[in-house]
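Hi P.,

Sorry for the delay on this. The queue was packed all week, but I finally got your sequence through. Input first:
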Amino acid sequence: MDTIIGIDLGTSTTEAAIIRNGKPEMILNMDGEAITPSAVGIDASGNWVIGEKARAQYLLSPEKTAIEVKRKIGTGDLIPLGNQRYNPVDLSARLLEYVKHYASESLGEEVTHAVISVPAYFNDIQRQCVVRAGVQAGFTVDRILNEPTAAALSYGLEHMDDESHILVYDLGGGTFDVTLLEMFSGVLEVKASNGDNQLGGKDFDQKLMDHIFTAFRQKTGVDLTSDKAAMARVKDAAEKCKKALSSEDEYHIVLPAIAMKGSKPLAVDMTVTAEEFEAMSAPLLERTHSPIDIVLEDSGIDFSQIDKIILVGGSTRMPMVARDIEKYTGIRPVLAVNPDYAVAEGAAIQAGIISGAIEPEDSLVMTDVCPYSLGIKVSNGFDHDLMSFLIPRNTTIPVTRSNTYYTFRDYQTDVDVVVYQGESDVASSNHLIGDFRLSGIPSKRQGEEPLLVSFTYNLNGILEVKATIQSTGKDASIEINMMDNPSSGEDTHDYGTMDLEKWKDNPAGREFRSTIRNVERALDRDLISDIDTEDELTDLLTDLKEAIIDNDLDEARDIEQEILDILEEEDI
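Then the structure:
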C-alpha cells in the first residue's frame, strides 16, 4: 500500500510520524524540528507563512497571523488575516499542506495518505471539517482517530502483554479529553470518552494574561486589551511565564514600552509566583473532574479498578496538573509516553496497521466508541420535539442501529428525518447535524405505515442515516460528510442544516414573534384544514426564520404577509 503518515493536528502545535522497522518515528519539518507551531499567516509580500515563521510573525503582525485555529473548527466563524477573512478549514488545510510538503521531502516520496487525530469529544461536524481540511491539503484521509486512543496506542505497542485499565488524561493546547481503556492480550478496547473542547493550555495562558492586564490597568489606568500588538506580546509573555513556573517558584515579566500615556512610555514589570498561578488556575483544573466522573460512570469502572493514569498533551507538564489528579483520584499519574509526541506516534501506529507497515502479529486490535449520543427528532402526538436515541454515547464503533417509527398524522406522505447529536431528551437542545426528507409514503391513517430508520457510525466517526418505507422499500439517506462541499474560503454555513431557533438571537426577531408562535401553535394542534396548506405553512415558517437569521427583514416581512394571508383563510 501507499505510505500513510500519522498527524497530530493540535491547537498549539502539529506533529507527524511514520512507522519505520515496526516502530513510530517522528518526521522533522523544514526547520529540522519535530514540533511545528500551529500558526498560519500572510507576510508583507502576501505570501503564506506557516509554523515557526508564522509564530514569530504573530508578535509583530498579529492582525496577519492566525493561531489556535483548531478552537474554531466546525463553528462557522471566520478568521481575519489582513483584509481577508478565512474559514478555519482553509487555514487548517494550509497547515496540513505544510506537513504534507515536509513529510514528502523527509521521506523522499510523495506522501498522499494520512491518519489524522482529533479530540475524542469532537462532534461529527468538527470531525468532518478535519477530514475536509486534509482533503484540501491533498491527503486521502484513511482514518480519523481520537487523540487519547492514539496516545494509548503509543503506550500499548510497548506493553502488548499488559492486562489493565488505563485512564488517558489528555490536556492539550486547546482541548481536554479523558478516555478509559482496557488492555488485554494485545487488544485495546475503549470503554468510554468524555471531555471539554474549550479547555486547554490556552485557557491557562488567558488566566495569566488577565492577571497582567488587571495589574497594568490598576497601576497605570491604561487598558491593553484594545491593542492587538500589546495583546500578542502579553500572550507570548504569559506562555513563557507558564512554562517557567513549571520548574521555578516565580517568574519576572518585563515588557518595555508596551503602551504610551501621553508622551510617556509604559512597561509591564511584575513578578508572578507559582502559588499565584496555581490559585488562578484552580477553576480550570476543577473543570477536568466532571469528565472523569462521567467516563467512570459510563464504563462502570471505579477508581479502585484503574491501574494507571497516563498524562498526554503539553499542558500536563505543569506540575499542578499531576498534583490535582492525584488529589482527586488517589492515583499518581505517570508520564508513560512523550506528552508531545504520543498522539502523532499513535496515529502513525494506526496508519501502520492499515498499510501493513506493522506486521499483524506485532499490532494491536483496537476498538473505539462514539463519544456522543445520536438520534432523531420525533413526536408523540403532543410534543413534537422529542429526541429518540438510536446510538447511545460510548457505544463501540463501528456500529449500525435501527428503529421502527410510524407516521403521526393521517394520510401523511412524507417525513423530515432530523438528526441530532447530544444527550438531552429535548431534540432541539442537542446539536443539529443534518436532515433529509423521505417522500412517497403510502397515504394511510396515523400509525399504520412503518418507517425503518438506520444509523451507521464508522471508525472515522462519520455518520450515515437511512430511512426506508417498509411497505414499498423506497428509501432516502444522508451521509454527513463535509468533503462533499469544498470550502471557497467564505463562510457558507454549510455545516448541516441551519438551527432555525437562532432567529431568537436577532433582536429584530421580536417583530415576528407573534406570527411565528401562531403558526407553530396551529401546526402543533393540527388546526390546518389540509396537508398541502400545512406543508406550505411549514415551508414559509422555515423561510421566515432563515430570513430573520440572515437579517433580511424586508424578505421576512414579505414572507410574514404570505403567512398571515393563509392564517386568515384558515380563520386562525
